[in-house]
Write a structure and sequence with these properties.
The protein is mainly β and 124 residues long. The protein has no helices and eleven strands. Strand 7 and strand 8 form a beta hairpin.
Length: 124
């Protein structure tokens, strides 16, 4: 079992930055692929970014490439999502997710554990 707790959300203006954190417990963190997803009101949950287990390979959805960076600190069992140049369309609840596998996936269906979410609001 893995427990995930997100933090770092908030209200910012367009163009600002935020750093989300996801603290994990309960499983060997370095063997766990981590992902960030988001869900805006009235929309389906969408993939944002993911990072593989120990080798740190990353993938992103096109709309955040060049603005968001996913990273992890295996010593602290924590994953991060650095979000720069935020836009109004980035506003959503952001969820951290973990897989039992170390390998990447774009699909939320392949993630086994989820956090409670953290709200990101962007004013334009």
């Amino acid at each position: 079992q893995v427990q995930l707790v997100e933090s770092g959300g908030g209200l910012v203006q367009a163009g600002d930055s935020l750093r989300l954190s996801c603290a994990a417990s309960g499983r060997t963190f370095s063997s766990t692929a981590m992902g960030w997803f988001r869900q805006a009101p009235g929309k389906e949950r969408e993939f944002v970014a993911a990072i593989s287990g120990s080798d740190g390979i990353t993938i992103y959805t096109d709309s955040v490439k060049g603005r968001f960076t996913i990273s992890r600190d295996n010593a602290k069992n924590t994953a991060f999502l650095q979000m720069n140049s935020l836009k109004a369309e980035d506003a959503a609840i952001y969820y951290c997710a973990a897989r039992r596998s170390a390998y990447l996936s774009y699909s939320g269906l392949e993630y086994d554990y989820w956090g409670q979410g953290t709200q990101v609001t962007v004013s334009s």
